[in-house]
Structure formats: C-alpha cells, structure tokens
Design a protein that fits this description.
Layout: E1 4-6, E2 11-13, E3 32-39, E4 45-52, H1 63-113, H2 120-133, H3 136-170, H4 176-198, E5 201-205, E6 209-213, E7 219-222, E8 234-238, E9 245-249, H5 252-257, E10 261-265, E11 276-278, E12 281-285, E13 291-296, E14 301-307, E15 328-332, E16 335-341, E17 348-354, E18 361-370, E19 377-380, E20 383-387, E21 395-401, E22 406-413, E23 421-427, E24 432-437, E25 440-449
Antiparallel strand pairs: 1-2, 3-4, 5-25, 6-25, 7-8, 8-9, 9-10, 11-12, 12-13, 13-14, 15-16, 16-17, 17-18, 19-20, 20-21, 21-22, 23-24, 24-25
Helix pairs in contact: 1-2, 1-3, 1-4
C-alpha cells in the first residue's frame, strides 16, 4: 500500500488504507507522523495517511496535478455534505416512527393485562398490528447506525482533504499515479454510498408547496436532475398541445418573479404535459405521433428522434384526465424511461428504458395496470409508482419494480390541493415531485425508506 520516492535527503511514504478487511498496524519510521486515522464500528481501518514531519523534497512540475487531486477530494466533501443534509428529513421521519412503535408496544402490554375487559375482536386486531410493526424496530436501529457511518465518512474525507493540503505545501516529487488511484478508490466508495442512500422505497409524500400560480389548467415545469448543484434553471411549458415555445429561467427565484428568461422555439409542437429535461436536453412526444424527440438547448437543434413502436397516441391511451398524455417521459436515478400503452398489452401500462442519446429502447416491461385508469405516474429507483386518479382523493395506488418484474398495491395519500393534477414527475437530484396542479406549480417532498447493507451486516430482507 505504500509508495516510495527518493529525492535528495530521504524517503517519502504515503499510505491510504480504504475499507480494509481488518485493522492493520503501521510501523512508523522516525520522523514520520499520522495525519488522519479512524476505524468503522467493526474495527476496520477506513483511512490512514502517513507523511514525513520534515520537508524532505522540493516541489516539482506535478504540483498542479496534486492541486487537481485536492480539488477532487474537496468536491467529494461537498457532495457528502449535500447527501448528509438530504437524508436528515428521512432520518427524523424514521425516529418518529420508532417512537410511535415503541409506544404502541407499551400500550399493547397494558392492554394485554386488561384483555378480559376488552372485546376479543379489538384485542386481536391490535395484536396483529403490533406483530406487523415489531420487525421494523431492529431495522430502524440499523438505519440510525448507518446515519452515524455517513457522518464518520464525511469526517474522513475532511481529514484527507487537510492532509493533501499539507502535502501540497511540503512535497513536490511523488508517485502521482499511485496517489491518483487512492483518490479514485475513495471517489468510487462515495458514489456507491450516494447510490445506496439515494434509492429506496417510497414511504411518504409531504404536503404540497405552492411555488407559483401561472398559465392554463394544463402544463409542465421542471429542472434538470443531472445539472450541477449551483445550476437552478427552470423550464416551463404551458398547455398540452400545439405549442412550440419553451421558457428557460436562470433560477427558481427568477421563475417565481417571471424574470430573466429565454425562449426556445421547438421545430415541432408537443403532445401532452409529460416532458423531461435531462442532461441539457428536452425530451418530448411529437404531436399526433408516437415519435420521441431529444432537443438540445445548447445547440438549439434536434439531436435524435425515434418512433416508439406500437405505442398508442392521440388520446388512445391517455391518463384519466386526457390531454394527449399517452406517452409519459420521465427520469430517475437509473436514467430515462417512457411509460405508455399498446394494443399488444391490451391497453395496460408498458415501461421502456431508453438510451439517453439515441432514444432506442434498451428493455421493456409489460404491466397489468390499465393506462386509462391511471391518474399520473413517476419513477423512483427503477420502480414505477401510479396514482389512481388526477382528482381530489387521489393516492399512489400501484407500484411496479423493474428490478424484480413484480408489482404490489400500495396506499400512499398525497394532498391534491387544487383538485386537478395534469403533470407529476420525480426529480432525483432534489428528491422532489414536481406537479402542475390546475394552473399552480407545486412541489412535494418524498420520504424513501432504505437500509444500507454494510459488509458483514445485512439489512432486513425485502428492504432497500
């Protein structure tokens, strides 16, 4: 794990031990010091950096490369901070569930003592409910442990950043390739952690946040899930047919004020309200066809268009509200998807994962849920969630997992404040649902349930 470099007065060693199977002791030679050392709950060494106390080497031409590595680690640190903030909302929800379940356990014990004075039917119902909740208690304990690991991981990257800063001031000659590989390994671990924490099962949808009131009853608004954190552009498309004009606002604040926007004139009119902005391109359904179009905002031109084979269009298989919503384009953590229906699948929902560049269909799943009976739909972590109506009283009623090719009926309510939803899409960067609710642009925060599976410690079966 070490790397040796000689220049002038002596040797230099730098060690980065990332996620080793067991802790190792490092014998330090005289004149060396440990800058950062930590262990995970299982006693494994997470990150140890050893460097000389004295300035043994002068700078060389690779100092710029080291600066680039430092910036890379600092960027990872910022990503972890965003990840940590984003999971706090879920963590508070889990703690509340834990308190409620433990309180119910105490009530159940008291009721069991007095069961002779209760109707047997009510007692049995409460007992069955308690048995359903009891297995969740150890899962919640694991969730709290995983949250602590995130904070520890955050501290380790902070320490590594400080070490690289110190080395940059003292060292010029080193094995750059070896050091780069260590940083890349750390980055891979971070991405793996982010992926696990970003994905999970939908548990709750918050009350709506009204951002703005504008436009007609039907339309779409969105941000780019792959944009950088500092990029907050908003795209706005009023109406569900015949229009070609897209408004681009530089920030959410500009969107609310209706200021500082740019107009794009598409070569074709769109159909429906189920458009998507993804990685700088607009994906939409061309009016009166089942043709998908990818329009690039930077070049102002169509980059790809392709017919979605057998897909119904022109109000053949719309959502319950109509509006030429036959084809729904959406994105999640795994890429771009098309949700539609075909005669071959008896008008039931079909899910296709698309190539983001060419719009070719990579893989398709046929579900048994009628497209015309669905109010709206959105994808989270490879699972399609379908609402049973676009009107008041709607709830998320059906979920189909593309990972397991299986479905389940669920019951997750959400507040349809303005009585008519004509667009509902998930943004993985914000972990938020964007909705067009009867001329109001609305946001819903979502809570996802996930258990991180660490090496040698597996989460509960069936949980993500």
């Amino acid at each position: 794990m070490g790397m040796w470099t000689r220049c002038g007065s002596g040797p230099l060693v730098m060690l980065l031990l990332l996620g080793l199977g067991s802790s190792r002791s490092v014998r330090l030679r005289e004149g060396w010091q440990v800058y950062s050392s930590a262990q995970d709950p299982d006693g494994r060494c997470i990150c140890t950096v050893v460097a000389p106390e004295q300035n043994l080497c002068s700078r060389d031409a690779r100092s710029k490369q080291l600066q680039q590595l430092l910036e890379k680690v600092q960027n990872m640190s910022q990503s972890i901070e965003v990840l940590n903030l984003r999971t706090q909302r879920d963590f508070q929800y889990v703690l509340k569930m834990e308190t409620q379940m433990k309180g119910m356990k105490g009530q159940f014990r008291q009721i069991e003592d007095d069961r002779k004075s209760l109707l047997s039917k009510h007692f049995q119902e409460l007992k069955e409910k308690m048995q359903e909740l009891l297995p969740l208690i150890p899962v919640l304990e694991q969730y709290k442990t995983d949250s602590k690991l995130i904070l520890q991981f955050k501290e380790e990257v902070k320490n590594l950043s400080a070490v690289l800063t110190g080395i940059q001031e003292e060292i010029g000659a080193y094995d750059y390739e070896e050091l780069q590989q260590r940083v890349l390994n750390l980055e891979a671990r971070l991405h793996d952690c982010v992926k696990k924490l970003s994905c999970g099962k939908l548990m709750k949808i918050s009350l709506p946040i009204t951002v703005k009131t504008s436009g007609t009853r039907f339309g779409a608004w969105m941000t780019d899930p792959l944009a950088a954190q500092e990029d907050n552009k908003v795209w706005y498309m009023d109406g569900y047919t015949s229009s070609k004009v897209v408004q681009e606002y530089q920030s959410m604040a500009d969107f609310v004020r209706g200021e500082d926007f740019k107009l794009y004139h598409l070569p074709y009119p769109w159909a429906g309200t189920n458009h998507l902005v993804y990685n700088g391109s607009l994906y939409f359904n061309k009016y009166q066809s089942n043709t998908l179009v990818r329009y690039n905002f930077e070049t102002g031109s169509v980059q790809a268009q392709r017919s979605l084979e057998y897909a119904g269009f022109n109000n053949i298989y719309p959502y319950t509200w109509g509006g030429f919503s036959d084809i729904d384009l959406m994105a999640d953590e795994g890429g771009v998807w098309a949700v539609y229906a075909t005669n071959q699948n008896a008008g039931n929902i079909v899910i296709s994962q698309l190539d983001t560049q060419t719009l070719e269909v990579r893989r398709t799943w046929n579900t048994g849920y009628s497209k015309r009976s669905a109010g709206e739909a959105f994808m989270i972590c490879g699972t399609l969630y379908v609402t049973n109506s676009h009107l008041t009283g709607a709830k998320v009623y059906y979920a189909y997992s593309t990972k397991t090719s299986s479905y389940e009926y669920i019951d997750i309510p959400f507040h349809n404040q303005y009585f008519h939803i004509s667009m509902l899409d998930y943004n993985a960067r914000d972990r938020t649902l964007y909705a067009w609710n009867n001329g109001h642009q609305v946001l819903f925060n979502v809570t996802l349930f996930h258990v991180i599976q660490t090496q040698g410690h597996m989460g509960s079966p069936g949980e993500e």
